[in-house]
Write a structure and sequence with these properties.
The complex is a heterodimer of chains A (about 140) and B (about 170). With about 140 residues, chain A is of the alpha+beta class. Chain A is built from 3 helices and 5 strands. Classes of the chains: A alpha+beta (about 140), B alpha+beta (about 170). At the A-B interface, helix 3 of A face helix 1 of B. Chain A: Keywords: Endoplasmic reticulum, ER-Golgi transport, Golgi apparatus, Transport.
Chain lengths: ~140, ~170
């Protein structure tokens, strides 16, 4: 059980925030490039999923899984995108992501008059509270198999 | 009730923002941008708000015994109705100086939990200093209110009542 890393993108695809907890393998490129790659992939998956779907979609793309990790995706109606990588056994990650959005992002970024919403997040308080929430969650443990 | 709390917070943030951006960016003789020139506008907004608010809050109250009684009212009832919590600590030297300490001041509790953004702190307490001064002024106490922030979100308001004015 582990949480690997978190990306937050805004409506226009720029990376607002990145943090990693248990990441054993780096991508070997700069953070900006990696974020662009990640966003591009998400964008493609989203349009793929909506085009190929035989039924009307309500939530659209939610997550994918490899044999080693699972990527969970949450998009708010305002276009904010949360991407959380966990191990494949983690459950109820959606609830955790909704908490990250409503209890950390809205509380400490949206309600913080010093933060601009279209700029990368620099608030120490936000980082602190996010870390707290992640470490409280039942899936967080320091060791990975 | 959650909605109107956030409304006050956002409106206050925009008030600060508006007052700051409207002010011409004057250069001080030292060449630095003058950041503090607009605090008096904010403080005055607070003053008139406090002056009018206290009229409403005290309509069911009898007269206060003395100055300390008045300050206690400000710390508990007045503060709670605006910031949803009473002042954490009140100190006085019994010679007209009162120190009101709030360990989690609401306008700053979302900004930082330490010294980050400390330079923005004066902007977010000016309104409240005025609020206190206005409230006291309408209760017949002329005072000087200053505020001090060492580490967000805790802050201290110093109320000074000049002694020779008291009856």
């Amino acid at each position: 059980m582990a949480i690997h890393n978190l990306y937050i993108f805004d409506r226009n695809g720029s990376l607002l925030f990145y943090h990693e907890w248990n990441r054993l393998k780096q991508s070997g490129m700069s953070r900006e490039e990696e974020a662009k790659l990640m966003y591009g992939m998400l964008f493609s998956i989203k349009s793929f999923v909506s085009k190929i779907s035989p039924l009307d979609l309500k939530k659209g793309f939610l997550s994918y899984k490899t044999n080693k990790y699972a990527l969970h995706y949450l998009e708010t109606p305002t276009g904010l995108k949360f991407v959380l990588n966990t191990d494949i056994h983690a459950s109820e990650v959606r609830e955790l992501m909704k908490k990250i959005y409503s209890q950390v992002y809205v509380e400490y970024i949206v309600k913080n008059p010093v933060c601009r919403l279209d700029e990368p997040i620099k608030s120490e308080l936000f980082k602190e509270k996010l870390d707290e929430l992640i470490k409280q969650s039942s899936y967080y443990t320091a060791k990975i198999a | 009730m959650v909605a109107d709390e956030i409304l006050l917070e956002l409106l206050h943030a925009e008030l600060v923002n508006y007052v700051c951006s409207n002010e011409p960016k004057e250069k001080e003789p030292s060449g630095q941008l003058n950041k503090h020139c607009n605090l008096s506008t904010l403080e005055y907004f607070g003053f008139s708000t406090g002056y009018k608010l206290i009229e409403r809050f005290t309509k069911d109250w009898s007269r206060f015994k003395d100055e300390l009684d008045t300050i206690k009212f400000i710390c508990t009832d007045f503060w709670t109705s605006i910031y949803k919590k009473p002042i954490d600590n009140l100190r006085t030297n019994h010679q007209g100086v009162y120190v009101l300490q709030d360990r989690a001041f609401r306008f700053m509790s979302k900004i930082s939990n330490g010294t980050q953004h400390l330079d923005a702190a004066p902007l977010y307490i000016a309104f409240t200093s005025g609020l206190l001064r206005g409230a006291l002024a309408n209760l017949g106490i002329n005072s000087i209110v200053t505020a001090e922030v060492q580490s967000m979100p805790a802050c201290k308001f110093h109320i000074q009542v000049p002694r020779n004015q008291m009856p």
